[in-house]
Write a structure and sequence with these properties.
- The protein is built from four helices and three strands; from the N terminus they run H-E-H-H-E-E-H.
- A hairpin with a 6-residue loop joins strand 2 and strand 3.
- It is elongated and about 40 Å long.
C-alpha cells in the first residue's frame, strides 16, 4: 500500500501508462489499446479533433480506487 501512496504523491492527477502497465503486469501497447476500445474501467481514451492522434489518460485516483477496491482511501 505504501508504494501506491507514493505513486499518488508522485503523480497526483494522472499516471503514466508505462507505470500502470508495469504495475498490473501487461504490455503498455495492450493497455493503450484497451483504453482506446473503451474496455478499460480506469482509463479514458479520445481522438484529437482533425488529427489521427489518440490520447490515453489514466486518472490517478480512479486507478487507485479500482486497483485497491476503494481501500486506498484509508491511506491517503
Amino acid at each position: 500500500m505504501e508504494e501506491l501512496v507514493k505513486l499518488y504523491k508522485q503523480y497526483p492527477k494522472k499516471l503514466p501508462l508505462k507505470v500502470v502497465a508495469d504495475l498490473i503486469g501487461i504490455n503498455e501497447e495492450g493497455l493503450k489499446a484497451n483504453i482506446q476500445s473503451g474496455q478499460c474501467p480506469f482509463g479514458l481514451g479520445y481522438k484529437l479533433s482533425g488529427k489521427g492522434n489518440r490520447v490515453s489518460v489514466i486518472p490517478t485516483l480512479t486507478f487507485l480506487l479500482w486497483y485497491t477496491n476503494n481501500t486506498i482511501l484509508k491511506e491517503i
